[in-house]
Amino acid sequence: MIKLNADLVVVGAGSTGCGIARDAAMRGFDVVLVDKGDIAQGTSGRFHGLLHSGARYAVSDPALARECAAENAIIKLIQPDAVEDTGGLFVSFEGDDQDYAEQFLAACAASGLVHEEITPAQARRDEPRLAPRIVRAIRVCDAAVDGWALSLGAVRSATAYGARILTYTRVAGIDLADGQVAAVRCQDRKNGRNIVIDTRFVINAAGPWVSQVAALMGIDGIDVTPAQGIMLASGHRLTSRVLNRLRPLSDGDIMVPARTVSTVGTTDEPTDDPDRLTMPRARIQEMLSAGEALTPGFRAGRVLHSWVGARPLIEDSRAAAGERREMGRGMLIFDHAERDGVSGALTVAGGKLTTYRLMAERAVDLMCRRLGDERPCRTAEEAVPDAVGPPRRITGRWSRLEAARTAAAARAAAGEACSDQPTIQDPVLCECELVGRSALIEPLAQSPDWSLDDLRRRTRLGMGPCQGGFCAARGAGAACQQGLWSADRASAALRHFLRNRWIGQWSVLYGDALRQAALDDRVLYGSLGLDLLPADEAVIL
Ligand SMILES: Cc1cc2nc3c(=O)[nH]c(=O)nc-3n(C[C@H](O)[C@H](O)[C@H](O)COP(=O)(O)OP(=O)(O)OC[C@H]3O[C@@H](n4cnc5c(N)ncnc54)[C@H](O)[C@@H]3O)c2cc1C
After folding, report:
1. Are residues 533 and 436 in the same domain?
2. Nearest CA to ligand 1 atom 2
3. Is 274 in the pocket of ligand 1 (CB under 6 A)?
4. Lowest CB count within 10 Å: 233, 413, 435, 443, which one?
């Protein structure tokens, strides 16, 4: 058994938990962040990718709209590497309720959200793929955000301030002594070790799993209904800006440009278990229709992948009847000293990924008050490490690759030894996402027990049109060739990765995507015989 000590244990390394760990570590607390999986493997890696300008909530929830607007500006400053500043457009079409446009404009003005109405002709010039018969078009400050890059950036910052991060470590018990949090008991899922962290404070940021973690402290009555939302990624990027339907909130309203693809979504359907989300064909068809309505031709084009995430819709069965309606929206912080007589414990849930920093600030402020140790929050002023400069651009990776090649060619022309010639030393393994060999091998050398999925979250390997059919085998081969993985481990990692990719592929298999899947199958299972290789997949998490 391993024994650790900390001022604070944060349960859950989604955006909320990563933000809390960063904030508390920056205030000088000794923090341990624990997740049963990888960083942002829950909802924060299965969301829509919109850094909200607030406009979507201008009519329905002005307070949330204002929070999103303020945080949108802050995130662009402190985490530009996670954001592509695309801008956004709200568009109404013939047949939509045109009264809503007036309400929307008035609500944006009332909340001070930056917006500008443009003509339908201008909207079509900005976005030529946009459906015709536009009636109104309004520009807003929406942007695209990468949930993995954002959460990993917060973790980099937390680590720089001394926080310890335990991934693939499940919190299995929380011990109390006289109604006060005393220790957190964890199981390391990679090697079966038990870890006990002595602490006097726990923040439960377990997203749709918060009620399970609260139950470990004997706390009940926080009822979570996971509401699942489905998204689809198109085969290439269809628009430059985020597109929103200008109508009251409903399913399939939004299309977000996400690096080389566009994502359309989402749905909102209550379910029972956050570990068993489903993607019914009828919902997939609805999202195909939603994409078609925004950009005609979407359905006939290629759809690469589908995925599903769960919003934690929370009801506090102890709240008064009148309050219950409000529990599902915005951010929630439960102070368990006040609510349940358990000192040293908070639960934080809800909100948006866009407002993750603000949620963390409020939670850590409350922790400081409870500890009688007020320390100011500094997360809005300081950029996360290695994230300075303007927001990233779609062309960023290509520019870096070209610059490296041009420099190597210049050195070669000058007669200098050119051992770092990137075309030889750093071949591109994943052409769609421009992932070079070194981008995979260098982090893997630090953490050889990572899976190809862990690497995908950090590099985007396998997220393009071949869905890993070519690049995953190259990645596993490179790890093996470098001596980081045995042949058996590489085979197991490859099988595990492709099986996980398949979960998001099968429901959108038609046309070119089906042809690609058939080709991948022939190469990997027909020629390479991947299913016949000796490999113990159980070692890969
Ligand atoms: C379909 C959908 C689309 C969305 N789109 C957007 C959007 O475009 N823009 C936006 O701003 N917001 C969006 N959101 C909201 C946003 O995704 C969430 O608010 C945010 O990701 C929640 O993060 P979290 O950290 O609270 O939860 P999560 O990311 O789910 O993190 C919880 C973590 O707790 C861990 N955990 C659970 N139990 C344990 C345990 N026992 N031990 C250790 N770890 C544990 C899990 O592994 C998980 O990593 C969307 C949400 C959904 C569902």
Report:
1. yes
2. 47
3. no
4. 413
Q: Is 450's C-beta closer than 6 angstroms to any atom of ligand 1? A: no
Residue 90 burial (C-beta neighbours within 10 Å; 0-12, 13-18, 19+)? buried
- Does residue 458 belong to any structural domain of this protein? yes
Distance 328 CA to ligand 1 centre (A): 15
Percent of the chain with pLDDT over 70: 94
Whether the CA torsion 433, 438, 439, 443 is positive or negative: it is positive
Q: What is the chain's alpha carbon radius of gyration, rounded to the nearest angstrom? A: 24
Of 199, 224, 156, the C-alpha closest to 386 is 156
Which residues lie below 8 Å from residue 278, measured CB to CB, with a gap of 6+? 228, 271, 308
Q: State whether 293 and 200 are in the same domain.
A: no
In a shared domain, residues 283 and 153: no
For 126, the token pair is: 């900005």
Q: pLDDT digits over 493-532, tens only?
A: 999 999 999 999 999 999 989 999 999 999 999 999 998 8
Q: How far apart are CA 155 and CA 162, in angstroms?
A: 10
Mutate to test the pocket of ligand 1, among 46, 47, 277, 358 (most ligand atoms within 8 A of CB): 47
Q: How many domains does the chain have?
A: 4
497 token code pair: 């990765």
Residues 129 and 229 in one domain: yes
Domain end, chosen from 326, 356, 371, is at 371
Cβ–ligand 1 contact at 211 (below 6 Å): no
Task: List the domain range (segments joined by +) for residue 152.
Answer: 2-43+148-224+313-371
Percent of the chain past pLDDT 90, that is, above it, reads 80
User: Is residue 69 in some structural domain?
Assistant: no
Q: How far is CA 113 from the centre of its chain?
A: 25
The answer to whether residues 531 and 443 belong to one domain is yes
Split at pLDDT 50, 70, 90, the class of 422 is: very low
Q: How many Cα neighbours within 13 Å face the side chain of 510?
A: 13
64-89, pLDDT tens digit by residue? 999 999 999 999 999 999 999 999 99
Cα-flanking dihedrals φ and ψ of residue 82, to 5°?
-100, -5
